[in-house]
Every structure is written in C-alpha cells, then in structure tokens.
Amino acid sequence: MTAPTPAPSESEALIRSDVDAYLLQHERKDLLRLLTCGSVDDGKSTLIGRLLYDTKMIYEDQLAAIIRDSAVHGTTDTDFDPALLTDGLKAEREQGITIDVAYRYFSTDRRKFIIADTPGHEQYTRNMVTGASTCDLAIILIDARYGVLEQTRRHSFIASLLGIRHVVIAVNKMDLVAFSQTVFENIRRDYEGFAAKLHIADMYFLPISALRGDNVVDRSTNIPWFDGAPLLSHLETVPVSGDRNLIDMRFPVQHVIRPHLNFRGYAGTIASGVIRKGDDVMVLPSKRTSRIKSIVTFDGDIDEAFAPMAVTVTLEHERDVSRGDMLVHPKNVPHFGHDFDAILVWMNEDALKLDHQYLIKCTTNLVPGTINQLQYRFDINTLHRASAETLHVNEIGRVSISVTRPIAYDSYSQNRSTGAFIVIDRATNGTVGAGMILERGRSVQPRQDAESKPVSDNIRREGSLVTNAARAKLLRQKPATLWLTGLSGSGKSTIAQALEQHLMEAGHACFVLDGDNIRHGLNRDLGFSAEDRSENIRRVAEVARLFNDAGIIVITSFISPYREDRTSAAAVIGPERFFEVFVDTPIEVCEQRDPKGLYKKARAGEIDRFTGVSAPYEAPEAPVLTLSTTTLDVAACVARVLDFLKQRSLLPQSKDESTT
C-alpha cells in the first residue's frame, strides 16, 4: 500500500495567508493530553502514525525515511508502516513492539494534542503508568480478532486508578474480521461487563482499522452500520475542561526569587484552582496569612492566573516561605499531616521493603518516610484483593505511609496534582514507586469489626424459638439488606424511599435506614472523621442485622465512602443477606443537584472532610447492581432492584406465591 497524499488543511491555508493570525489561533487552542494503551500488537503505534500522517504532522523527509525503513523493519506487509513514526528505538524496530513511552505532538484546527504511545507488554507496565499519569483521555486498543485480553484489563484498571475519566475503546483491525458488526458488539459487551467494576465516567466504543485509516480521521465507508464520529472528531470535541480542578487553589512553592533587596517572589506552577491579585492566602505549614500583592510572568504582571500556569507571586506581608511550602486559600485548605493511605504502583526490580526509609516527593515537598503496611495487593486480572507481604515490580497495592515531617495533600480523586507522589530510593536516588493518595489521615489502627468481642466475657447471644423459615413463610419474603452507596446527591434516598413504598404496597415488610435519620438519634455522638464514619457504618450494620433477624428487608441509604467499611458491614450482616447497590452518579451531576447546598459549602471550605470534595469516595468493585441515575429514572431503578430480589428468590415471583 502506497501512502496517499492528503489534502491541504485549513491551518495550512491560514499559514500561507496570515502567519500572525495562525499563531494567535494556535495559542488559544485547548490542549488534550492522551495516551494509547492495550495489549501487545493491538496497533497502538500504527494508530498514532496514522493520526500524524492524516493530520499532515509529518515532514516530507520524515515520510521518505519511514517509507525506506518500512522495507526493512515494517510489520504490515506494505511499503508504508505508520508504527515506525513512534517506534524509534532499535530494539523496538527489531522486535516490532513498543518498549518506552514515546510522546508526539500534533494539532488540528480545533485543538492541540500531546499523545503518549505506551508499551503493551506486562513487564513495561511501569512505563504505561508514567505515560498515563498526566493524561485526560486514554485510547484502549483491542484487536478485533482476539477481543478483551489480560493486558486490556490491566491497562483499563490502571487508567481508572489514575483518574482518567474519558476512555475510547478502539476495536482495531476490523478489516481482518470483514468489518463484522457482530464481532464489534460482542467485544463491546465483554468490555462493558468488565468495566462495570471500574470507575470510568465516559466510555466511547469505536470500530477502526488503524493501518487502512477506517474511522481514524474520516468516516469509513466500510463500516456503514456505525453512525458515531471517527476518532479525530471525538478527540477534538470530548469535553475535558470541566475535569480540571479550578476550585481548590494550590500553589506549591518551587523556588524563592530574590534578585535584589526590593523584590522577594515565590515561583512555581499552579497545581489547581485560580489565584488572583488581592486574594487572601495562607502559607502551609506555618498557617500564616497574607494577601497576593502581584502575579509576575515573563510577559509582565497579570491580575489572575490558573492551573497549570507557571508564575511568580509576591505577598503584601513578610512571611517565611520556602521551597516545599504551599499557598492556599484560608477557607479551602488541603489536609496537613504525617499519615495517609495510598494506592502504590511499584516500579523497581527490587521488591518493596516495609518500614524501610524512602524519600516521598509530593508536589515540591521532599520528605523522608516509610511504608508501614501493605494492606493488600490487587489481582489485576480479577480486580480482587490478595494478601501479600511485599510488592514486586509492576505490582499494585494499597499501603499506609508515614512521613517524618507533615505535608499538605489532597486525595487523588479530588486533586490529581496534590494527591500524587513518587517514592525515591535514598541510596540510588531512583524512582521506585508512584502513588495516589486515597484518604485524609485515616487511622490504620485496629478497630471494632465483626470479629471483635464484647467488653465482658459474661455476655452471650440468645437464640429464638421462632425459626427463620417460619418468619419467611409469614412475611412471604426472605430477609436481606440492600446497601445503597454513592455520593451525596446521587439519588440514594429517593430510590430507597420509592422502593420502600413499592414493597409496602405489595405487602412486604421493609424499612429504610437513612444516613441523616440515624445521625439524629442512634449516632448523634459521631462526627465525620474516618474513624467516626467507620463506627457509624458498624452501628448501622448491627441494626440492619437485627432487622434481618426479624425477617424484614432493610434498605440503607448511606454514602459509606470506604470499601473497607462496607466489607465489614457485609461481615456483620452476613454475605448471604448483604447486597451492595452502587448508585452511580458523576460528582458533576451531584454538584448540580446539590439538594442541601452541601457541595457549595464544602467548596467554600465551610464543611471539612466532605466526600468527593475534601474526602475520598471508593466506588464498589463488584456491586450486585449499578444504578446510573443519569440514564435511569427513579421508577426504572426501583424496577431493576425488584427484578434482582425476585431473581434471588428473596421475593415471590407473584403476590400469591409463598417464600420457603
């Protein structure tokens, strides 16, 4: 196949007529960072090469060199192998694989792009993590001949962990399966079944042929059954500006500039939020306050700046500020402490050493610290948790970390810039791990759970003369706890109340345990620290268990943000009675609803440790049901729950049937 000659673009025409206008237009374009990932030989490098070629981002001498090299190193049996545009290492060309991360830059009339080509081999997982850490969107390629493979799942899981909200699932090499719609739909169903366990806000499925260019830049005539946009059109229009945190102002100080006696400025890159001249600011860790006097750039002073601009700020008052300190708004501060939990990707051939002193670098702050505990390791193929004594290269686990000097940080789900860190070996100065902070200072000390004993040895459980079968026959149902979990404003209480009403009208005994109601009475003594949240859930689980023992169906409506607490609740209630239901609603939608005005208060710093804003939410990994309130109304959600109860024989199939 000979490379075709693409037509001139609008940008090319503008360059010829008015260079200044082109440069101004280019400067104002939005930037999208993306990566390609997936299993080996799924066509990642070929796809990038095709994008670069069809957008005229290849110089003539580069194209000539690629055509020459295709005869020697090409793997496509053609005289033009697009993959050679990114696979530049000798070892990559010899083996026909990607080993290191390759970055390429291109632009269209609508947007600028930085694209990372990441390797597919398991042994280069750490390279994929590096490439994904700054991306807004991931293109996960799947070979249409083989479907969803182990590395497909691995890279999807990592993309989800790294907070990538937009994912394009590109089913490649459709030309090798005769552009079959059946093949595409089967792969789509398989991937959706797996991805239901992940927290990916936006998925776009696309059939393509990267080598031939089908659905890459232009709509393919070979795939008439697909009416979606081609890849480039989707990349140009996918909304990512709302993903960036412009609420929480975080300015880590990188360098103090003191050119003469009359100027002291603090230079750095704004991690998130907006900073304006005249804003009140607080310096962490000293907690001294001041006001922004000026914002200095190479082009002169400006009145405001936003992430990720690199600026120098001056303060109206003399304050002790140095590298590693952070400027924040006084009413919107990050967590500040010695301890945190995190998801850690181990990137070194030498295994993780617990209680060994490493260097922890978070923003511009570099402090000694130790990894105290490995709580569990992820089995990436099943997404299950496995006990482990250490982490080996490319393995991922949840750890507890302590640092010798308190640092300012946010949870990674709230702020990717201040919630990420790297682990550095003190002897070699090499990066050995990369992590995402999950919680704000949550204690890792043992707490009461299902296995804890009462305070006295003179207490014992009493049985009942009424059997569970007798209660089930009387009530025409089997007891269960439907544990509705999700963000504030997701619709949990609305669904719970509607479900309760429907069950009662059908003659079933049920009761809703609502988070706010419980805190008015039974749990009025508890706050919202991680420890109090855990105790809140423990007490609720004990109450639900008593209701279930009475034969009643319990519907709970609690944010219950921590997976560990929900797991403990399941242990208290019993796995045969506990059913986790994820009310899945993006935080943007929850904030728009904000029925109690809580998000507004949390963003203003008036509510501390608010889930989704200043405290993490850990989505269920394997709920029995996922209710998306952005696509399902209340009635549809209730219907899905009722169908589930009947399928599990917790309710009779009809009103006249008895449950035995």
Describe the structure.
This protein has 660 residues and is an alpha/beta fold. The chain has four domains: 233 residues, 3-Layer(aba) Sandwich (Rossmann fold); 79 residues, Translation factors (Elongation Factor Tu (Ef-tu), domain 3, Beta Barrel), CATH 2.40.30; 103 residues, Elongation Factor Tu (Ef-tu), domain 3 (Beta Barrel); 180 residues, P-loop containing nucleotide triphosphate hydrolases (Rossmann fold, 3-Layer(aba) Sandwich), CATH 3.40.50.300. Helices cover 27% and strands 27% of the residues. It has 17 helices and 28 strands. The strands form five sheets. Strands 7, 8, 9, 11, 12, 13, 15 and 16 form an eight-stranded antiparallel β-sheet that branches. A six-stranded mixed β-sheet has the order 2-3-1-4-5-6, sandwiched between helices. The chain starts with 9 loop residues before the first helix and ends in a 13-residue tail after the last helix.
